[in-house]
Design brief:
The chain is an all-alpha fold. The protein has 5 helices and no strands. Helix 1 runs parallel beside helix 4, helix 2 packs across helix 3 and helix 3 packs antiparallel against helix 4.
Length: 166
Amino acid sequence: MIKIFRAISIILTLAIMILIFCLSSQNAQASSKTSGGLIEKVLNVVYPNFENLQTEEKENIISNFQYIVRKTAHFSIYFALGICVLMSIITYCNLRLYVRMVLSGIICIIYAASDELHQLYVAGRSCELFDVFIDAIGSILGILIGYFLYRFILIYIRKKRRKNNA
């Protein structure tokens, strides 16, 4: 059971890291098109007359949401990465849980910093310290949620074992 959980955790961790790398490899124009397209789809659902607006007005509205969507995406993807990294390390390391949590945080923050450095070499992109900060907050919150999930699962398994042994 642990080997399956470990394999799934590692696969999910690598998949998220690859997704982050691929999104960071998009030039500025492609990146804006990706986030803008997502915003446009959401606005078409929640704003009934959005499709009928003039092109310039649509672009202004999308532009206003772009910053929030981009920062939320940073936070969210690193939140998921934090959970997955913690779950991977929990199955491998024979260290105290808080050490595993700190190690998970270090891995996520190093990845966030390396991702921002990577963007220096992508056309139209930049290295933003604020993005590393948002990524770090997302991953730390993910690690904390992952910790509570782990504790919940552990308590459930122990109760089940006691019930089966009784």
